[in-house]
Amino acid sequence: MGGTTMLSMFTRTQIIGAMARKGKATYVGSGKENSEKLNPILGGVIEVNPDALQQADVVDRERRAEAPGSCYGLHGIPVLLKDNIATKDKFNTTAGLFVLLGSVVPRDAGVVMKLRRAGAIILGKASLSELMDFRSLTAPEGWSARGGQGNNPYVLSASPCGSSSGSAISFAANMVAVSLGTETDGSILCPASSNSVVRIKPTVGLTSRAGVIPVTPRQDTIGRPICGTVADAVYMLDAIVGFDHRDAKATRKASKYIPSGGYLKFLKKDGLEGKRIGIVRKPFFNFGNNSALSHAFENHFHTLKRKGAILVDSLQIANIEEILSYTASGEGVAALAEFKLSLNAYLRDLVASSVRSLADVIASMRKIRF
Question: Superkingdom, according to UniProt (predicted)?
Answer without folding.
Answer: Eukaryota
